Amino acid sequence: SFPTRRSSDLLMAQQVPSPKSHFGFNIGDNYQLATFTQTEAYLKKIAAESNKVKLQVIGKTEEGRNHYMMIVSDPSNLKKLAHYKSISQKLARAENLSEQEAAMLAKEGKAVVWIDGGLHATEVVGIHQWIESLYQIITRNDEETNRILKSTIILFVHANPDGQELVSNWYM
Questions:
Q1: What pairing do the DSSP bridges indicate for beta strands 66-72 and 53-60?
Q2: What whole-number distance in Å separates Cα of residue 21 and Cα of residue 132?
Q3: Nearest Cα to 134, choosing from 152, 157, 160, 109?
Q4: What is the pLDDT of residue 149?
Q5: What pLDDT digit, counting tens, does each position of 77-135 carry?
Q6: In what order do the strands lie in the sheet with 152-158?
Q7: Are 133 and 147 in contact (CB under 8 A)?
Q8: N or C: which end of the chain has fewer CB within 10 A?
Q9: pLDDT above 60 for 4
């Protein structure tokens, strides 16, 4: 659960549209589901407004839609994303690394966290909590959230764009 917002938190939040302002309803409202088309537009809006995110297309879905990953972190980390990716790759492969070199890389690198939602499209809470969580982590400006963003690179990946579009269109 996220802490209550302070007035200082609202400055950043005013730049990034809320889910309600974009979708026309709060995430979790009864009888409301967001389609992938709406979600894709929202991701693009967030990417245009926030310096805490980088939107990447990671491929195409079976039905030809863009498959997105939203990379979320402190802006200073995003500027050095290639460097942190290199560190993660070196540590993952552990080829020709001494214990001391590995320790130095681990100290310099960032934790990488993968968060996805929506794999099973008829389990609609997954993708909707993903949308809300993404909004919350990039609009909060409290000490704990800032600490998380400075020490972590979060990969928000939509697990099933085709399924979200199919199920949400059918339901709505």
A1: antiparallel
A2: 13
A3: 157
A4: 97
A5: 999 999 999 999 999 998 999 999 999 999 999 999 999 999 999 999 999 999 999 99
A6: 53-60, 66-72, 152-158, 111-117
A7: no
A8: N
A9: no
